[in-house]
């Protein structure tokens, strides 16, 4: 029997139960549901709505149910609509009338909001941990790359030589912002909805502040309507994950590209590569490709919940049940993605020689020629014209740029030394630029920020 059967004259149609159930996916919340119920029992006891003995009976029953769920010996019934119903039904089976007191002053509306916030807190903690580990891995890989150089690209066209570490730290800084967002989301969502009841609180003397404290929330809700209908935290987590996914996807795209034979810049470790069922020679970057591919899901999950929310009047509406699957999906996928991606990057190797060669193409130093002229007082636009003219000449006449620079009246011997990737990355003095000095300073600051977390 469902919890609400008494109101209705005929039993629920099978089609109704099949369509409206959420047990198949909200089972995941069982730990949090029991945690919330324990706090609620303590709150009821404190309000003298349960005697001390009843409280002990209920807490023990909740422990039993916890054990059954943990060992997968819990038997779900067809009439269990969701995890809340299932737990309460079982507690009542175990301890009879005392069990029937469990739901006093509580609605599934504040209950699910509480469960979901408890879940979200632990999900945020787990993803944040994954990001922190990823960030420190990036620092190690960047440090190991030392002052080795690679070409930097714009429009996927070689642009300027940069230290590999500078490139890696760029991804690090993006994820550093993701971490900030995850932590800010945590702080904002750290509010307990328990005690809001169905929508307007309860006449029973329970104290939401007390249960908030029991559950380790920073505060209790201030408005019961808001408490049962707010799902901002779900949206925020989905956004944080989507943007983190987008960042990893961009990195992934480079890994796919740079591990091709055509580029040959990076090599994936065999334990983080896949083979082909047909083509014997294949070694594929599947982790990177799936990281790129799953981003579609993350974005879809975010959009899905936003669209669900947009038309819902206050307060609770059953539509809200649709928040869970997208949230669980993004959290679970991202948790796994972070670990796999981290393993892939930390075991990846660089073909330093090939990278240096690619970064040493003379034309990548054309801007250095122009800036040399600027230092000697030539207006930049004219200097740009001189350097571009030399590049064009060099290409058309098939003469190395170096030679043309040496022969140019405004450049000459001294300027010839500019045509060298390592020299270029040493000369960039502006802070934050792609110079070795900047990378050393960046890495220091980056590690310091990680240390202070
Ligand atoms: N399964 C529901 C959900 O996920 C729980 C709340 C049900 N509340 C209700 N009044 N029907 O939102």
Automatic annotation (TrEMBL):
Residues 363-407 form the Argininosuccinate lyase C-terminal domain. Its EC number is 4.3.2.1. It holds the Pfam family Lyase_1. It catalyses: 2-(N(omega)-L-arginino)succinate = fumarate + L-arginine. PANTHER family: ARGININOSUCCINATE LYASE. NCBIfam families: argH (TIGR00838). Belongs to the lyase 1 family. Argininosuccinate lyase subfamily. This is Argininosuccinate lyase. It comes from Ferrimicrobium acidiphilum.
């Amino acid at each position: 029997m469902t919890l609400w059967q008494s109101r209705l004259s005929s039993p629920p149609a099978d089609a109704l139960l099949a369509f409206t159930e959420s047990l198949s996916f909200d089972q995941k919340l069982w730990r949090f549901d029991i945690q919330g119920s324990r706090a609620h029992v303590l709150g009821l006891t404190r309000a003298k709505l349960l005697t001390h003995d009843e409280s002990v009976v209920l807490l023990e029953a909740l422990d039993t149910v916890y054990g059954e769920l943990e060992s997968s010996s819990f038997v779900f019934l067809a009439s269990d609509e969701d995890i809340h119903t299932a737990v309460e039904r079982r507690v009542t089976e175990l301890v009879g009338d005392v069990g029937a007191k469990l739901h006093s002053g509580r609605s599934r509306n504040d209950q699910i909001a509480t469960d979901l916030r408890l879940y979200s807190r632990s999900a945020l903690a787990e993803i944040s941990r994954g990001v922190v580990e990823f960030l420190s891995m990036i620092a190690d890989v960047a440090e190991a790359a030392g002052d080795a150089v690679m070409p930097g690209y714009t429009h996927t066209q070689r642009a300027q030589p940069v230290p590999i570490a500078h490139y890696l730290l760029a991804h690090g800084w993006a994820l550093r912002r993701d971490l900030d967002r995850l932590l800010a989301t945590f702080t904002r969502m750290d509010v307990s909805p328990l005690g809001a009841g169905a929508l307007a609180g309860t006449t029973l003397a329970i104290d939401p502040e007390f249960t908030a404290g029991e559950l380790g929330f920073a505060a209790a809700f201030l408005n019961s309507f808001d408490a049962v209908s707010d799902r901002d935290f779900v949206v925020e987590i989905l956004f944080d994950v989507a943007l983190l996914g987008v960042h990893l996807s961009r990195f992934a795209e480079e890994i796919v590209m740079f591990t091709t034979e055509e580029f040959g810049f990076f090599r994936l470790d065999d334990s983080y590569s896949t083979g082909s069922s047909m083509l014997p020679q294949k070694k594929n970057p599947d982790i990177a490709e799936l990281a790129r591919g799953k981003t579609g899901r993350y974005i879809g999950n975010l959009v899905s919940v936003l669209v669900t929310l947009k038309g819902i009047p206050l307060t609770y509406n059953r539509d809200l049940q649709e928040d869970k699957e997208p949230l669980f999906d993004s959290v679970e996928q991202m948790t796994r993605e972070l670990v796999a991606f981290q393993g892939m990057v930390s075991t990846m190797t660089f073909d330093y020689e090939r990278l240096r060669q690619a970064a040493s193409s003379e034309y990548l130093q054309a801007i250095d020629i122009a800036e040399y002229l600027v230092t000697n007082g030539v207006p930049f636009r004219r200097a740009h014209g001189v350097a571009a003219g030399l590049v064009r000449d060099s290409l058309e006449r098939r003469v190395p740029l170096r030679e043309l620079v040496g022969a140019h009246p405004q450049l000459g011997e001294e300027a010839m030394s500019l045509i060298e990737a390592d020299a270029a990355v040493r000369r960039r003095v502006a802070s934050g630029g792609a110079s070795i000095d900047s990378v050393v300073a960046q890495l220091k600051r980056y590690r310091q920020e990680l240390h202070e977390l």
